[in-house]
Amino acid sequence: MTTRCVRCLMPSTYPDIAFDSEGVCNHCLDYTRPELLGEELFLQKVNSRKGKAYDCVLGISGGKDSCFVAYLAKKKYRLRALAVCYDFPFMVDLARRNIRTVCDSLGLELRVVKTSNDLERAFMRDHLTSLSATGTTWGQCLFCHYGIAAVLDRTARREGIPFVLSGVTSDEVWWDPGSRSRILARRLKDVSLADKALFGLYQSRAYLKLVEQRRQFPMPGNSRLNAYEHPRTSVDGPETIRVFDYVEWDHDVIETTLKEETGWQKPDRSLSWRYDCVLEPLLDYTYKREFGISSAGLYLCSLIRSGRMSREEGLSLLEEIEDQARLDACLRTVLDSLEIPRHVQDKFFRASGA
Questions:
Q1: Alpha carbons 301 and 52: distance in angstroms, whole number
Q2: What is the per-residue pLDDT across 181-238, written as a single tens digit (0 to 9) for each?
Q3: Residue 286 CB-density burial (10 A; 0-12 exposed, 13-18 middle, 19+ buried)
Q4: What residue segments make up the domains of the chain, in order of their start?
Q5: What does the pLDDT average to over 308-331?
Q6: Contacts with 32 (C-beta within 8 Å, 6 or more apart), sequence order
Q7: Mean pLDDT of the chain
Q8: d(Cα 122, Cα 219) in Å, to the nearest integer?
Q9: The pTM is what?
Q10: What is the pLDDT of residues 148-182, one digit of tens each?
C-alpha cells in the first residue's frame, strides 16, 4: 500500500525514500530553505559588466516566472534587456499571446527563434513511436533542454551580452529519481523482440532530428553527435543568473503584478506552472507511472516544504492533476496530433495498465 509523507506529498514508491517514526520523509528532514542572496548582490553582479547594446538576455516562454523576470529586468531594474523566445510547435496559444502582451507592455524587444523543417514535431512523432511498448514518454523534453540553452547562448555571444537571466527556481530543480536511461532500459527488457526492433528504428530516426537541431543551433563545447547529453555552457560564454536565487519568489505576488502591470493572463487551470507546453501532462503521466507521483506533484512537494503552500492545498491540486482519465486524454490528444496510428497508441495504454 502506498503511503505519503505526513509533511509533504512524497509517496513510499519514490526511489530511495525513507520515513521516520512519525511518517516524515527524508526529503523533508534533509530540507533547508535556501537563503536569498539579496537584491543588492544581484544588482552588483548584473551591473559589473556591460554589453554593447544590451545588459542581459532572457528566455521568455509565456509562463509567470519568465514573464516576471522580464518585468523585473525592464521595469524595476531598468536593464537593457533582450527577450528571446524559442518557439516550438507544442507551445499553447495563450503562452504566445502572453509573450507578446508582456513584451509590448514593457517596451521589451523580442526575438522569436524557430527550427526549420518542423523538426520538433518530427522528433516527437518518431520518439513517442519508439517508446510505445514501454508505456512511458521519457526524453520528450530533450529538444527544449538544448534548444533554449543554445539560442540564448548564441544570441548573447552574437550581441556581446554578458548575462543570461533565468526564471528557474530552487523548487524546480531538486528532484533526482536516478538515471532515466536505466529506467527506460528496464522497461525495454520486458518488451517483445519486435518492439525492441521498433524502438531501435524509430529512436535512431528521432536521434537524427536532435543532431540536426544541434547543427542548426551550434553551441560551443557541445558535440552534435552526442545529442542525448545535457547542454553545457563554456567558461567564455555568458554567465547565467538565476534571478530567484536573489529575489523572493511568491506566486500570488508574481501573478497579481503581471496581470496588473503587463496584462498577462493566467491560464484556466488551478496550477499555472508549465502551462505553456501541451506536452507537460505526458511528463506527469510518466512520472506517475514510474514513481507514483507526477512531476507537478514533486513541484507541489517543493512548495509545501518551503512553506509556500499548505499540504491540504497541495493534496487537492495533486488529485486534480493526477486524475488518470485526464492524463490518458492528454496523451491521446498529443498522439493524435502527431498522427501516430491508433494501434501504436494502444500499446502505451496496454503497457501502462490503463
A1: 42
A2: 888 889 999 999 999 999 999 999 999 999 999 999 999 999 998 999 889 888 888 9
A3: buried
A4: 36-269
A5: 92
A6: none
A7: 92
A8: 22
A9: 0.92
A10: 999 999 999 999 999 999 999 887 766 677 778 88
- Residue 238's closest CA among 84, 111, 109, 50? 50
303 touches 293 (CB < 8 A): no
Q: From CA 166, how far away is CA 73, in angstroms rounded?
A: 11
Q: Three cell numbers at 8?
A: 509533504
Strand order in 163-166's β-sheet? 109-113, 81-86, 56-59, 163-166, 239-242
Give per-residue burial for 126-160: e unless 16+ CB within 10 Å, then b: bbbbbbbbbbbbbbbebbbebbbbbbbbbbbeeee
Between helix 93-106 and helix 64-71 the angle, nearest 10°, is 10
Specify the residue for cell string 547562448.
Answer: 153
* 258 has pLDDT over 80: yes
CB 151 within 8 A of CB 83: no
- Tens-place pLDDT, residues 46-91: 999 999 999 999 999 999 999 999 999 999 999 999 999 999 999 9
Q: Which three cell numbers stand for residue 157?
A: 555571444
Grid cell digits, residue 208:
537524427
pLDDT (mean) for 92-112: 96
Non-local (6+) Cβ contacts of 121 within 8 A are 89, 338
pLDDT at 106: 97
CATH code: domain 36-269 is: 3.40.50.620
Q: Provide the pairing of β-strand 163-166 with 239-242.
A: parallel
Q: What is the pLDDT of residue 160?
A: 96
3-class secondary-structure state, position 308: coil
